[in-house]
């Protein structure tokens, strides 16, 4: 595959694709998809589930030839899947075994800002950080990753990420395929570029790294060219775009219809059938795919509607093979997908306590670059706000908010498409479109300890396309970020 990416040097390490990439037919699908192990836990005296996560460096063999220098959690690349139930108290011992500062952020989780693992919860080299909270949100596919300001792109590119699945009581969960690794398959989709010695390259596209890394090989759970043996009629895929910058336009090689059942924050109210689905960095979807005995079909990323010159730089014109599904000659039956799934977002009828607007442009939000010691605003606890978000330049951006799952009220004044009608924490922002989001801030937190909102294209985030907010009581004022918030 490597040779199919045509690159041209722009000098000083600036590279860009000169042709669109097409890997269809060039991926051999000769390795079984690696399934991240479920994280082990113990229960402590107070009944909390305790997980131990060791962040480490190592080497990973992705392909023939040299091993690749990588980072991982409890392993050399990526990390285990954490699984816990709504209502459970969880505690973590996050040990930083690297020789530099990092952090672990729980993307999509509602929790106190001091436990969030963002830029103010840096874990210094050799230190152990012990966040704890009670899980208080519906079943969903969340994830974790580093969030050190200025180094997030680098740390994630080296391999630090993992899934965090929240389960809810059985009575709340519809009957969907749920045997982990069998008919309920986690898929962390990432792109990487390898150099001649199999090391991760940091190809920087045009305009001084305006986008970040776009790789020419796709990895799923760290496997290049994976296949999955299908043994049941229906399979649920929990897909995370764990890439630094690449947008995927997912579909199957025979253009079959598949069913979207969940987005970032959990189940949709009802299933939605589609043939294509965009997944921008940080977003998750759960889809259910029906298979026929004996068939083979590939999951791919297709060229997107955002093609053209910019599309070439961004990889929007690329056609990529991702994973092959091989159905057994006899498949065990699966229950049909229920016609109703989760609780629909209910914020549309709420009166907005405050409206705000956010324009993303040139590594800034509303003309301001992220400053660690500046809290941009405070919201009032127990209120609903409406945020109008727009991408004001031609590049691709998306928008992620910590602490909450939000509801997309309108897109350019119209009703959002079905895939935007469930709970979301990250949305793709095609240039010029206005997204109105409703957000409810459920819990007060320390006025000195902010949550983040930012573009999840990691280079943009590192470059400053990020801001900070706190959740305040009535009459309370925005605080001051403590100087030293590192954990030794
Ligand atoms: Cu996935 Cu602020 O992050
Ligand atoms: Cu961006």
UniProtKB/TrEMBL annotation:
Keywords: Membrane, Metal-binding, Oxidoreductase, Transmembrane, Transmembrane helix. The chain crosses the membrane at residues 1-17. Signal peptide: none annotated. Gene3D superfamilies: Cupredoxins - blue copper proteins. The keyword Metal-binding applies. Belongs to the multicopper oxidase family. This is Multicopper oxidase family protein. It comes from Streptomyces lienomycini.
